[in-house]
Amino acid sequence: MRTISIIITYILLIAWTIFVLSPIYWTVTTSFKGEADVYLGPKFFPWIDFKPTLWAWRKMLTIERDMILRPLINSVIIATISSLFAMVFGSMAAYGLTRFQYKFAFWRNQDILVWIVSQRMMPPIVTVLALFIMLKVVNLIDTRPGMILTYTAFNLPLAVWMMRNFLIHLPRSTEEAAMVDGASSMQTLFQIVIPMILPGLAATYLICFIFAWNEFLFALFLTFNKSQTIPLLIAAQHFQRGPQWWDISALAVIAITPVVIIALFLQRYLVKGLIPLGR
Amino acid sequence: MKNLLAAFTGKKVGRVFLAPTVVILLLLTIFPFLFSISLTFGRVSLTGGLGIHFAGIRNWIRLFQDDRFGNAMRNTLFMAIVTVTVQYLLGLGLAMLLNNEKIKGRGIFRVLFLLPMMLSPIAVGYMWRMMFGTLNGPINGILIRLGFAPVEWITNTRIAIYSVILTDIWQWTPFMFLILFAGLQTIPKGLIEAAQADGASSWQQFRHVIFPLLAPATVAAVLLRLLEAFKIIDIIYILTGGGPGMKTESMTLFGYSKGLGTFDLAYGSTIAFSLFITVMVVSIILLLGLREVQEIRLE
């Protein structure tokens, strides 16, 4: 009876794994297919029912290179810098909220925290139309600084929430001991607190990076051309070239590769950072 | 000790830590939020410089007379409720299955199970568009080989919305799984062993021990996922474009097509705002309902 239930558990877990992996498998294999292999019925296994070709990939690195390079650079710059801002400002705010007693009129720390975090719950479509006008007025529309600012604001509530969950579990006694020993508050911050919250900072940075890398709606409204990001480049494909699935698959693989690497090799940090969301 | 900390830093210094976040959010979320409220009562012209004129409640009247609004609202609510329910059940099931120490390779399963939620929804939209291909997609390929008729996954007016739902389930069940799995791991083993010793069946253990202890994680997971589900656009944008007809158009997609597609920023803001009000109402009802449930339990 016990053995049977274990076997059933394995079967269900493996079934879900197959469900999870099949679209990814299909996309990766399609990027190695030629036109005929895509249009003459579904072909499932390389070397068995179709001969893999580097055609799409070679095209990506030659003819299509300039088309891809710019959005790729935009995505890298916008995601890395905005996540850095979100992480730094977010942990500053979280540090403030866990170490000082604020009082603005009748607002205390808890009210400020709720106010910050609730910003995340607002549907982006509500602010994006107004942001479009605002950025247009200050000439930041379709620019990298404009997108960096937008994504910093977009990720800040999450960064504050995550860092607060790390800082609240940090024993205050260590900090206080350092201060008693005569360390200044800045010394305490940089020599005691920051080294202890490095895993938290890493998790926050990675989560913000993933959100910024994948973000679509803001990019859709606020960029048209020179600061378009990778999700926008891919989204434009089926209007521009119709169903050329081998090219689209190659682009999709490019878009998911950094995130898959993070997910596979750095997931320990991510999970540590995300789990406080559940509390 | 608190005084000591304050003495070293001073009261004003504390505000420096909070300032950047508050300034950025005021500037890039609160201001646009207020701005877009005012837009819902205005008319925006972008030709020859920016002009915003007062238009009273014209946009709101137009919204309530617009059949497309009712359609998009129905689609959004339907998709949100179905996806979140199914994601919760699947996420809970997977978390329960994996929360068994006799299972080998739990680490690998967890890494793979969490993968979809980290991928770009745009890429996910394309992945599933290929999966759902009528002639050359693998799902229909397998169906045909098994002797079934091919299904028009994204072009049939009845089926398309379920294809969007399936894609969303694929991408976001991991989120439910993550939070519920973490919640399960905080339940002390002794409690379950005690229930077993008292002769409780697996169902009784779940119903009377695990499920109540999982309640905080459940509330957080369902609420967070529901708030996100109301915002859906990216998957639909790629998978069906809101079609066939407007059978899969969501509120955000509707707001986009009016706001930027036809450059009617005021009407787009009105659509967006009606979504915001819906989200607020649903969250408040849920939170009040939860409080009631908890009070009943306490009594």
Polypeptide structure, described:
The complex is a heterodimer of chains A (279) and B (299). Helices cover 75% and strands 0% of the residues of chain A. Chain A is mostly helical and 279 residues long. In chain A, helix 3 (55-61) crosses helix 13 (245-265). Chain A is globular. Chain A starts with a helix and ends in a 5-residue tail after the last helix. Chain B folds into two domains: 2-39; 72-298, MetI-like (MetI-like fold, Orthogonal Bundle), CATH 1.10.3720.10. Chain B is built from 14 helices and two strands. In chain B, helix 9 runs antiparallel to helix 10. The radius of gyration of chain B is 24 Å and the shape is globular. Chains A and B meet through helix 1, helix 4, helix 6, helix 7 and helix 8 of A and helix 1, helix 2, helix 4, helix 5 and helix 6 of B.
Topology-level CATH name of chain A? MetI-like fold
- Distance N to C terminus of chain A: 36 Å
**Class by SSE composition of chain A:** mainly alpha
Quaternary structure of the protein: heterodimer
Helix and strand composition category of chain B: mainly alpha
Instruction: Tell me the fraction of residues in β-strands of chain A, as a range.
Output: under 5%
For the record, the count of structural domains of chain B works out to 2
For the largest interface in this structure, which chains are involved and how many residues does each contribute? A-B, 98 and 100 residues
DSSP summary: helix tally of chain A: 14
**Domains of chain A, number:** 1
User: Globular, elongated, flat, extended or rod-shaped: what is the shape of chain A?
Assistant: globular
Helix/strand order of chain A: HHHHHHHHHHHHHH
DSSP summary, beta strand count of chain B: 2
CATH class of chain A: Mainly Alpha
Strand content of chain B: under 5%
Strand-helix topology:
The complex is a heterodimer of chains A (279) and B (299).
Chain A lengths: L1 H29 L4 H5 L15 H7 L3 H35 L9 H10 L5 H14 L6 H25 L3 H9 L4 H12 L1 H17 L2 H6 L7 H11 L4 H21 L1 H8 L5
Chain B lengths: L1 H8 L1 H29 L2 E4 L5 E4 L3 H8 L1 H32 L7 H13 L2 H11 L6 H8 L14 H26 L3 H9 L4 H12 L1 H15 L4 H6 L11 H11 L3 H34 L1
Antiparallel strand pairs in B: 1-2
